[in-house]
Amino acid sequence: MGFTKLTCMHSLRKSKGDTDSAIDWLFDHRYASSSVLEHGVDPYFACGGDGAALLKDYASHTYVDLDNLDDSRLNKFFTSSHVSSMLNVVELNADMIADVVMRVIPRSWKGVDVAPVSSLLYDRGLVKSFPNHH
């Protein structure tokens, strides 16, 4: 039906697992749901590498960087199914990228047709070329 994995997870948590209520929520919020972020409802991500780099600057409060954990037991802890269920932590997967992008783009870019590309994006490697960059 075109709903992202994270949006479906969000609706299920909002409705306390009631699938009928979750479906109603999805249809009632289908246009705004990709940018909805609610503490205690939306999951925290367990990720490293590119996923952590994507979240680092604009959504640092939403993930655990597995690459920076000093103890392998902590890595195992955050990725175990029992703990992830209790703490609402999920491993970041490719099918979640659309929702993640909505979390990390600046709020001022949402709902506009054109957004400025700054040298900051170039410096962070988020764009390949920047014509006025010295």
Q: Cα-atom Rg, whole angstroms?
A: 17 Å
Mean pLDDT: 77
Oligomer category: single chain
Strand order of the largest sheet: 2-1-3
The strand count comes to 3
Strand content: 5-15%
- N/C terminus separation: 46 Å
Tally the helices.
7
Uncertain runs:
none
Proportion of helical residues = 40-55%
**What can be said about the biggest beta sheet?**
3 strands, parallel
Please write the string of helix (H) and strand (E) elements.
HHEHEHHEHH
Q: Judging from the principal axes of the Cα atoms, what is the shape?
A: flat
Write out key terms for the chains shown.
single chain, mainly alpha, 42% helix
What does this 3D model show about the protein?
- Strand 1, helix 3 and strand 2 form a beta-alpha-beta unit.
- The protein has a domain of 41 residues.
- A three-stranded parallel β-sheet has the order 2-1-3.
- Helix 1 packs across helix 2.
- The radius of gyration is 17 Å and the shape is flat.
- It is mainly alpha-helical and 134 residues long.
- 42% of the residues lie in helices and 7% in strands.
- The model has no long low-confidence stretch (mean pLDDT 77).
Quick recap:
β1 (44-47), α3 and β2 form a beta-alpha-beta unit. This protein has a three-stranded parallel sheet with strand order 2-1-3. The protein has helices at 5-14, 19-28, 49-56, 72-79, 81-87, 97-104, 119-123, and strands at 44-47, 63-65, 89-91.
SSE diagram, text form:
Elements: H1 5-14, H2 19-28, E1 44-47, H3 49-56, E2 63-65, H4 72-79, H5 81-87, E3 89-91, H6 97-104, H7 119-123
Parallel strand pairs: 1-2, 1-3
